[in-house]
Amino acid sequence: MTATVPAECRMANDIARNLGHLPAEEAAEAIAGHIGRFWDPRMRARLHEFVDAGVDGLDPLVVAAAKHLR
Amino acid sequence: MTLLKEPDFGTPERPGPATVSVEVDGLPVTVPEGTSVMRAAAQAGVDIPKLCATDSLEAFGSCRLCVVEIDGRRGTPASCTTPCADGMKVSTQTPKVEKLRQGVMELYISDHPLDCLTCPANGDCELQDMAGVVGLRQVRYGYEGENHLDAEKDTSNPYFDFDPSKCIACSRCVRACGEVQGTFALTIEGRGFDSKVSPGAGESFMDSECVSCGACVQACPTSTLQERSVVELGIPTRSVVTTCAYCGVGCSFKAELRGDELVRMVPYKDGGANEGHSCVKGRFAFGYATHPDRMLKPMVRDRITDPWHEVEWDEAIGTVARRMREIQDRHGAGAIGAITSSRCTNEEVYVVQKMVRAAFGNNNVDTCARVCHSPTGYGLKQTFGESAGTQDFRSVAEADVIMVIGANPTDGHPVFASRMKRRLREGAKLIVVDPRRIDLVRSPHIEAQHHLQLRPSTNVAVVNAMAHVVVTENLVDRSFVDARCEDFDEWAEFIARPENSPEAVQEITGVPAAELRAAARLYAEAPNGAIYYGLGVTEHSQGSTMVMGMANLAMACGNIGRDGVGVNPLRGQNNVQGSCDMGSFPHELPGYRHVSDDAVRTVFENLWGGTLLAEPGLRIPNMFDAAIDGTFRGLFVHGEDIAQSDPNLGHVTAALEAMELVVVQDLFLNETAKFAHVFLPGASFLEKDGTFTNAERRINRVRSVMKPKTGKHEWQIVSEIATAMGYEMSYEHPGQIMDEIASVTPTFTGVSFDLLDKLGSVQWPCNEEAPEGTPIMHVDEFVRGKGRFVVTSYVPTNERSTRRFPLVLTTGRILSQYNVGAQTRRTGNVAWHPEDILELHPHDAEVRGINHGDMVTLASRVGQTTLRAEISDRMPTGVVYTTFHHPVTGANVVTTENSDWATNCPEYKVTAVQVALARPDRPIAAEATGNDLVKAGD
Ligand code: SF4
Ligand code: SF4
Ligand code: SF4
Ligand code: FES
Question: Considering the domain boundaries, does residue B209 fall inside one?
Answer without folding.
Answer: no
